[in-house]
Amino acid sequence: MGLDFIYIFKAIIIAIVEGLTEFVPVSSTGHMILVGSLIGFRTGAPGAEEFAKMFEVVIQLGAILAVVVLYWNKLWGAVVEFFTFIFTLGKKGEKGFKFGMNVLIGSIPALIVGLTLYDNIKDLFKPSAVVVGFIVGGILLIVIENRFRNKVSKRGNIATTDVFDITPIQALKVGLFQVLAMWPGMSRSASTIMGGWIAGLSTPVAAEFSFFLAVPAMIGSSAIDLFNYDFSQMNSTFIVALIVGFIVAFIISIVVMDMFVSYLKKKPMRIFAIYRVIAGIVLFALSLAGIVTLTI
After folding, report:
1. The domain containing residue 212 runs over which residues?
2. Is the pLDDT of residue 76 over 60?
3. Which residue ranges run through the membrane (predicted)?
């Protein structure tokens, strides 16, 4: 069987969408589902529906690799300190150990909910659920940013401005908000940054911690999808699509991450929230008019 270049091109489009949206608060999964539905990515070849579900999760590892590359020095230093703290019985490496424990603590809520409700969550991966997530998530983003971003606490404490100064309670609050991202269209980035604001993190630190929490979250979800996927359906087209998609998502994610962090240091995220609400309303209106179908 020869390569289906049209299907591979569709996979590249989905990978571009992933790279552009993974780390900004608009929901990469939601956009991949919507764009995939519009271009027929899930119906473009025999076995495409199951492959697309796996593909849309696994190429997010390309985006996660971008986190590792961009923050390599900080991550590697933290890993070294984490194990140094263990092997020296707490005499050295406290900062890295604290950081590692905070990432683990922040990952626990999503791990529990993801393993418990995996099938239910996968059933939500359809355009209609994405529209709800776009609108609800956009409204939440506006409300929480206005209420909590850059606010001084009643005790006069300023926001946490270093990711290594995050407390376990703050990490847990962010982790609890990450659970919201399991509804497609809500956005993992938006959910964790909102949790960071409520926990008292500055916006750049909330975004940075969001990136770090994405590593175990995406590795875990990708592992589950790969384990459950029927590889007997794989063919040369799917293999090429997966490899190319991974690479494209990685390259674009590196560029977008750097630009997004620079943006957050100067401007609010309201523009992303407005975009989400408008996009959700437009899609809903188009479905009522019979122009698009929000069920698959």
Report:
1. 5-288
2. yes
3. 12-39, 59-87, 99-118, 124-144, 196-219, 239-261, 273-294
